[in-house]
Amino acid sequence: MEYPIPSNRADGRSRTRERLGKLLREGGDVLTVEHAGRILDIDSAEAAKTLARWCKQGWLSRIKRGVYVPVPVESISTDRALEDAWIVIPDLFGPAYVGGWSAAEHWDLTEQVFRDICVFTARTVAQRHQLIHNIPFVVTHIAPDKQFGTKTVWKKEKKLSVSDPTRTIVDMLSNPWAGGGIEHVIDCFKSYVKSDHVNPKQLVEYAERLGNAAVFKRLGFMAEQILGTGDFLVTACKSQLSKGNAQLDPALKGDKLITRWRLFVPSKLSLGTETTP
User: Fold this and answer.
1) 25-80: per-residue pLDDT in tens?
2) Is 240 exposed, middle or buried (0-12, 13-18, 19+ CB in 10 A)?
3) How far apart are CA 203 and CA 164, in angstroms?
4) What's the angle, vertex CA 179, arms to CA 243 and CA 233, rounded to 5?
5) Domains of the chain by range and CATH?
6) Rounded to two decimals, what is the model's pTM?
7) Which residues, at least 6 apart from 4, have a Cβ–Cβ distance to it below 8 Å?
8) Rounded Cα–Cα distance for residues 161 and 90 (Å)
């Protein structure tokens, strides 16, 4: 992809032109103030002013305070959509990983396509829903010691983390909203158990490490309905049941209590099999 370089209209602008060219060549797809300072060998304050000036002139587009992207030569607006939105995640939210429905898409656990990108971050989150550079993110905080079960992926020479297939399922069981609602979580679970990614023992291990007791209630109920009462996951989840009742999906408020799983389930929910109290 080509990026616009100022034309040589005045000898006095040669240094600016060279510096901008160097930044665009070496900076990659996402530029931070710190990164620009290292490339241009200037301090952070000067780098911030320089990036802001070039943004005003149309060479860069600001996506967040201190974070910019180059504007391609074919762009007609600095509000362009990023070619691959994942590349901004480390600079915006890191340490973080792509998870939930976005990870399910990545691992082919769903055929649905979501516009929002689901991100789990160790940073403090003021707003869950964030629109940055016309890219919608759904961001949730997760403690650093809970950031396990991820894989490294590369997008345009940018290193990112994405939850592995098993962690993706566990995250969606812990927070059904992260899976686009419980019905979509069920569909992803069905795809998972039929895929090469399936790892029942790892599923139980991850659920234990995450420490959300509701995961075992939801997982046990779903496994029983989809895989049968004799499945390993059913037995494992029964041994992990905690006291108290949970909702299959807090957003739906189930009206039927499945006592053996201590789980409230919506009467109209369909798993493709019959549910019994």
Assistant:
1) 888 888 899 989 999 999 999 999 889 888 887 888 888 888 988 887 655 444 44
2) middle
3) 11
4) 50
5) 11-70 (1.10.10.10), 85-265 (no CATH)
6) 0.78
7) 58, 59, 71, 72, 73
8) 9
